[in-house]
Amino acid sequence: MSEENLEKIIAQQATTIQNLTDEIKLLREQVAYLTQKRYGKSSEQMPLSGQLNLFDEEK
Question: How far apart are CA 23 and CA 15, in angstroms?
């Protein structure tokens, strides 16, 4: 193989590595987001009024 061919292969490999690195970064961000959404603090909170008042015996 000539030096020119080797340089071309190295450049292609560097591009592939960069593309895969970018994809891994994106996938890690997606995993972090979905993990937070799945296991993070829920936005669904019990209301302070409503059904809880049915059991309020302070009448």
Answer: 12
Q: Any residues with CB less than 8 A from the CB of 46 and at least 6 apart, and which? A: 52
pTM above 0.85, yes or no: no
Q: Cα 18–23–38 angle (5° rounding)?
A: 155
Cα–Cα distance, 24 to 29 (Å, whole number): 9
Residue 2 is predicted with a pLDDT of: 93
The full 3-state SS of the chain, as one line of letters, equals CCHHHHHHHHHHHHHHHHHHHHHHHHHHHHHHHHHHHHHCCCCCCCCCCCHHHHHCCCC
